[in-house]
Design a protein that fits this description.
Layout (H helix, E strand, L loop, with lengths): L2 E3 L29 H4 L2 H12 L9 H8 L5 E3 L7 H4 L9 H23 L7 H26 L15 E3 L3 H19 L12 H15 L9 H15 L22 E5 L3 H6 L35 E3 L14 H5 E2 L1 E3 L7 E2 L2 E2 L7 E4 L11 H5 L4 E2 L12 E2 L19 E5 H14 L3 H15 L5 H4 L8 H12 L5 H7 L3 H8 L18 H5 L14
Parallel strand pairs: 10-11
Antiparallel strand pairs: 1-3, 2-5, 4-13, 6-12, 7-10, 8-9
Helix pairs in contact: 2-5, 2-6, 5-6, 6-7, 6-8, 7-8, 8-9, 8-13, 9-13, 13-14, 13-16
Length: 548
């Protein structure tokens, strides 16, 4: 590996003080960096828990939403918030952008934490089977973070050794080698040593490792360094996830978003959040995506901000293209993913211009018909009803269809930003769609259609099951990406889906007017953080296209 001078921005052996998830209830330890503690059984277990904590600052936070959602064919910017450079691809998308810096730093902290656990495990006196299980967990996590890094930044630093303090030597290693030295062998070890089911909800399992390895191989299959067996191996691994562990699609797509039904049969791997921990402040992260996809309902007639409808931060809104994807006469997923009616939570007197009847609490206050159904709302029709109607031609950065997947009515007050929802990283429907993609890559459109039809059958409006089914001739990569949008909208896959399949620039130019003028081929990877470059003696290479 080419050696470069570089400072790794990690906290060696530093544990996050926030509890990681529902299975972490450990007593905080103040001197966890001490070598003597880390090599005890308790210290080793705490080190494993701390590695999971690396998920928290990204998944469920605004950083993750901006980097995984903005600048795609289906999401564009709302009125408020910063970091819109991820949507506009303008000069502000450079190595100085704070989310570029923070995501890089966070993932390398997780990698270094995993390296510390692995490297010091030999000194830990504990049951060997349990130790191997925990090592398999952190190797799964290390592979996860490296996969995020290569799919976000491309070639990057590779280290399988623990960094203590400041390290001034580093490397810029090709994605080929990161796959070969870290991602694939770590996940193969995890598959061989993880259980089918975890004792504690949220820990890594064998099916989660198979899922991740399949996605990594499928991603590699699009690259110049692909292995000829990547797609077929991904298909096999995803078949294992689908068939071997008892996962099952919920009968009703809407039930996935029932906050009382989170630990359900479709979940393969999640970042758990605990209501007791987020409400008490023990967990300072929680799931905040309930904030980002809501329109400005709270300043409209008959409405004020409340817990049930959410705190509308107006960060992300659908593109016009996104709203064309569902045929609502046969497909229930738009109606189950977006909110249509807001009921008055304050009384309003009648108005004269235009004339509208009074609103009582519980009356319809706002109606967004959405695409394809009852969309003919001329002003004369709107003036004839006592509530506000916003049809397709009236959407703007403040008013738009609002995603309801993450709304969290269990928050203790209307201002609370942390929510208790788990962040879904892998679910069974995604495994079917990824297997369809792997089959398509091998020319098996019949098998791909079979997998897609399983998902579409579940989504069918009652009585329309046959109408939802597609034929092998319908299956193309673009159709699959459309289907992934219909099923997974707002779940944090889109930017990576488009980037890994080579479709980011094409589809974003076609469907996102805010991004179209600036997006270029080099935007399929993010810039290397500027602080990484500035603190590296002799410099550290910037990704092509971005300013050094």
């Amino acid at each position: 590996m080419n050696r470069k001078i570089y400072i790794i921005l990690v906290l060696a052996l530093a544990f996050f003080t926030e509890s990681c998830d529902k299975f972490i209830e450990e007593e905080l330890v103040t001197d966890v960096s001490a070598a003597s503690y880390y090599t005890t059984e308790g210290g080793f277990e705490d080190g494993v828990r701390a590695t999971y904590s690396t998920f928290k600052p990204f998944y469920g936070q605004e950083m993750g939403a901006a980097m995984m959602t903005f600048g795609t064919d289906i999401w564009t910017n709302g009125a408020d918030g910063g970091h819109k450079v991820f949507n506009f691809y303008d000069g502000g998308l450079n190595g100085s952008e704070s989310y570029i810096r923070d995501s890089w730093d966070n993932w390398y902290k997780g990698i270094n934490q995993a390296n510390g656990v692995i490297n010091r495990s030999a000194e830990v006196d504990m049951d060997e089977a349990q130790k191997t299980l925990r090592i398999a967990e952190v190797r799964f996590l290390r592979a996860f973070f490296y996969f995020n890094i290569v799919t976000t930044f491309g070639d990057a630093h590779l280290s399988l050794e623990e960094t203590e303090g400041i390290e001034v030597e580093a490397n810029r290693t090709s994605q080929t080698e990161i796959y070969a030295q870290a991602i694939v062998p770590d996940l193969e070890f995890a598959i061989a040593n993880l259980p089918d089911e975890a004792d504690d909800y949220g820990r890594a399992t064998k099916p989660a490792a198979e899922f991740l390895l399949a996605k990594a191989l499928l991603t590699r299959s699009y690259t110049s360094f692909a292995d000829g067996t990547d797609a077929s191996r991904a298909e096999t691994l995803l078949g294992n996830v689908i068939n071997n562990y008892g996962f099952a699609l919920l009968d009703n797509f809407a039930d996935l978003w029932d906050i009382t039904n989170q630990e359900n049969s479709e979940m393969v791997f999640v970042v758990p959040n605990s209501k007791s921990q987020v409400d008490s402040g023990v967990d300072n992260f929680g799931h905040r995506w309930h904030l980002y996809f809501l329109h400005e309902y709270d300043v409209r007639r008959g409405m004020t901000r409340d817990i049930a409808n959410g705190r509308p931060w107006k960060r992300h809104r659908p593109t016009d293209f996104m709203l064309t994807l569902w045929d609502r006469d046969i497909d229930s997923r738009y109606d189950d993913s977006f909110k249509h009616v807001w009921f008055a939570n304050k009384e309003e007197p009648p108005t004269t211009d235009p004339p509208r009847a009074a609103l009582a609490i519980g009356d319809t206050a706002i109606f967004i018909p959405g695409p394809g159904k009852d969309i003919d709302w001329p002003q004369s029709r709107q003036d004839a009803v006592p509530y506000l109607v916003y049809s397709n031609d009236e959407y703007n950065e403040r008013l738009f269809p609002s995603l309801n997947k993450w709304i969290d009515a269990t928050r203790p007050d209307r201002q609370k930003t942390q929510g208790q929802r788990d962040f879904i990283l892998m679910r069974l429907a995604d495994a079917y769609l990824l297997r369809a993609e792997a089959r398509l890559s091998q020319g098996n459109t019949t098998g791909a259609a079979d997998d897609i039809n399983v998902i579409r059958m579940r989504a069918a409006v009652p009585g329309q099951e046959a109408a939802t089914q597609i034929t092998p001739a319908d299956v193309t990569l673009d159709f699959l990406l459309d289907e992934r949008a219909r099923e997974l909208v707002g779940e944090g896959h889109r930017w990576w889906d488009l980037a890994r399949t080579g479709k980011l620039v094409e589809r974003t130019r076609l469907h996102n007017p805010g991004a179209a003028p600036n997006i270029q081929d080099y935007h399929t990877v993010r810039p290397i953080p500027q602080n990484q470059i500035d603190r590296s003696l002799g410099g550290y290479p910037q990704n092509p296209g971005y300013p050094q």
